[in-house]
Amino acid sequence: MEYLWITCSIFLLLYLPFTRSQGLCEVKNGSSTIIVDIEESRGTSISQETVPPELPIVGEPNVDIFLDLSFPKGVPLFFLNEKKLQLLTPIDRDEKNLSHIVFQLICTIKSTYKKRTIPVIVRLIDVNDNAPKFINTPYETTISELTPVGTTIFQNVAAKDKDTGVNGLVEYTIVKGSNLPDDDNSIGRRMHSEDGYGYFAINLPHQGQITVNRTLDFEKTQRYYVTIVATVSSLL
Ligand SMILES: *[C@@H]1O[C@H](CO)[C@@H](O)[C@H](O)[C@H]1NC(C)=O
Ligand SMILES: *[C@@H]1O[C@H](CO)[C@@H](O)[C@H](O)[C@H]1NC(C)=O
Ligand SMILES: *[C@@H]1O[C@H](CO)[C@@H](O)[C@H](O)[C@H]1NC(C)=O
Question: Are 96 and 137 found together in one domain?
Fold first, then answer.
């Protein structure tokens, strides 16, 4: 009996100091960096959570470990609430052309004060938050009434969208116009205007090219107003 007890205590004495001295903070899946995602801010929102919502660190903050953030390359953008990263200021990926934020997590084992610095990469997820804007407007062109149906008469319709990727694909469609300007009946000319809906078409929605879609008649109509809507397709 006595023999056994001595063996056990020697085993414990050797075992405990050994594991503790090796013990550093660990990332849950054993990787050397932490990668999480966060949506860019909608307006001035800073309440959005990361995905996953908590940093995958082994241990409980203030119980087994202490966690701290370090931003060696600039101003702090996050603070830590337990294991949750929370934004200090809104982030707009479109303004600053920002795709990710890199900083460091400093994790200290409470019982030994052993520190480990773990790189954290927060990837910014684009939110479709910018309406497209037409550039180089107004668009105007003069064509002959004899222009055959199918002819491209204008190809410089363009709207820009600040969002990236799938959120930045602009589509153009012709819609029925509203608020058509009055006919111009000043002396010497008679200018009858009509809405161009139906007379003109955009056959390739991603290209701002306008084609003639119906036979035109100068005696009847001298000016068409074509209303184009730019929309951004989104998978979100
Ligand atoms: C560990 O998790 C991160 C997400 O935080 C992931 O990107 C990475 O691929 C994972 N690594 C391993 C080895 O599973
Ligand atoms: C944003 O970065 C991309 C490459 O990551 C580059 O092609 C683009 O021109 C940049 N846009 C601005 C506005 O800086
Ligand atoms: C083009 O004209 C045809 C009829 O000729 C009509 O069915 C179609 O909707 C028109 N297209 C557009 C874009 O107005």
Answer: no
Residue that terminates a domain, selected from 82, 105, 125: 125
Q: Chain centroid to CA 97: how far?
A: 10
Spacing, Cα 136 to ligand 2 middle (Å): 22
| Same domain, residue pair 89 and 158 | no
Atom in ligand 1 nearest the alpha carbon of residue 36: 5
How much distance in Å is there from the Cα of 48 to the middle of ligand 1? 21
Look up the domain containing 170 and give its range. 128-236
pLDDT tens digits for 7-42? Answer: 444 444 444 444 443 589 999 999 999 999 999 998
Ligand 3 centroid from CA 169, angstroms: 24
Question: Residue 88: CB within 6 Å of ligand 1?
Answer: no
Please give the model's pTM, rounded to 2 decimal places. 0.61
Protein residue with its CA nearest to atom 14 in ligand 3: 198
User: How many domains, the chain?
Assistant: 2
Cβ–Cβ under 8 Å, residues 50 and 85: yes
Q: 198 and 146 share a domain?
A: yes
Q: Is 226 in the pocket of ligand 3 (CB under 6 A)?
A: no
163 and 106 both lie in a single domain: no
**Is the C-beta atom of 56 inside 6 A of ligand 1?**
yes
pLDDT in tens, 96-133: 788 999 999 999 999 999 999 999 999 999 887 778 88
Residues 113 and 145 in one domain: no
For 3-32, b/e burial (b = at least 16 CB within 10 A) is eeeeeeeeeeeeeeeeeeeeeebbbeeeee
